[in-house]
Amino acid sequence: MRSSSSTASRTWFITGASRGLGRAFTIAALDRGDRVVAAARTIARADFDERYGDRLLTLTLDVTDRAAVLAAVAAAVERVGRLDIVVNNAGTMSMGMIEEFTEAEARAQFEVNLFGALWVSQAVLPHLRAQRAGHLVQISSIAGLGGFPSTGMYSASKFALEGMSEALAMEAATFGVTVSIVQPGGYWTDLYTSMTSTTPITAYDPLRAELARQWAEDSIDSEPALAAEALLKLVDSDDPPLRLLLGSMVYDLAFDISRRRMDTWAGWERVSRAAEHAQAGPG
């Protein structure tokens, strides 16, 4: 485990850094003496304490614009010299039943949550490969564990992010670069207040009412600073995991979902195995 007091500071590149978890990550890194390139669609140096001085560089960046991402990362590296930790945190949420999504709404969910992270990953990898070191952290969600009513398209984008990141982790390891997927539960950010919603189909009204009742009874969120503390432990680890769950509810849910999937697979084992019989290829 790294000690910030005895080891040289590192440089972070954090997207979605102006608010929510991204802002908490940025402040936590700065408070320990590290340098941060903080990127967001809307961000200004004046949004942060003056005491951080030149250890904080802010960049206005729309992660859905691949050319802009490539240019921003190149400019950041030219300015700070190297990147040690990259956090793909920028994300959006659109609520609605799967049937309700328009094509534009569905694509918009993926543009930020999947493609934005993909463009940043592609932009930073040449630099991380060249230095044969670095840690790329993909911020996923509890929604990356399973699909849930009314957040299905958000889950789809996070499932895609995680599938891409699993492959990337194996590819990047060749060059000494680590990839981790962080799956947070609920935190008091503006994700819920800034999210968009589909035009409702009335047939789903009873389900919406039931979901609203469950959320009112069971929803407990945490302060983003707790997620930031966990992130620091992750990047300080000598052996960081591919996946890190944040929160007791997420932890328990991950095991519950995994057990139910394993039970289903086991129950259908005979059918699964019967569907394979190796034979020579035609010709």
Q: CATH class, please?
A: Alpha Beta
Give the second-level CATH assignment, the architecture.
3-Layer(aba) Sandwich
Q: Profile the largest sheet.
A: 7 strands, parallel
Number of strands: 9
CATH homologous superfamily identity: NAD(P)-binding Rossmann-like Domain
Distance N to C terminus: 57 Å
Provide the low-confidence segments as ranges.
none
Q: Which oligomeric form is depicted?
A: single chain
Q: Sketch the topology as an H/E string, one letter per element.
A: EHEEHEEHEHEHEHHEHH
Class per helix and strand makeup: alpha/beta
What's the number of helices?
A: 9
CATH-derived topology = Rossmann fold
- Rg to the nearest angstrom? 21 Å
Q: Which percent range fits the helix content?
A: 40-55%
Adjacency order of strands in the biggest sheet: 3-2-1-4-6-7-9
Mean pLDDT: 93
Beta-strand residue fraction: 5-15%
In words, what does this structure look like?
By secondary structure, the protein is of the alpha/beta class. The chain has one domain: Rossmann fold (3-Layer(aba) Sandwich), CATH 3.40.50.720. It is 48% helix and 14% strand. It has a seven-stranded parallel sheet, with helices on both faces. Strands 5-8 form a two-stranded parallel ribbon. Strand 6 (135-139), helix 4 (152-173) and strand 7 form a beta-alpha-beta unit. The model has no long low-confidence stretch (mean pLDDT 93).
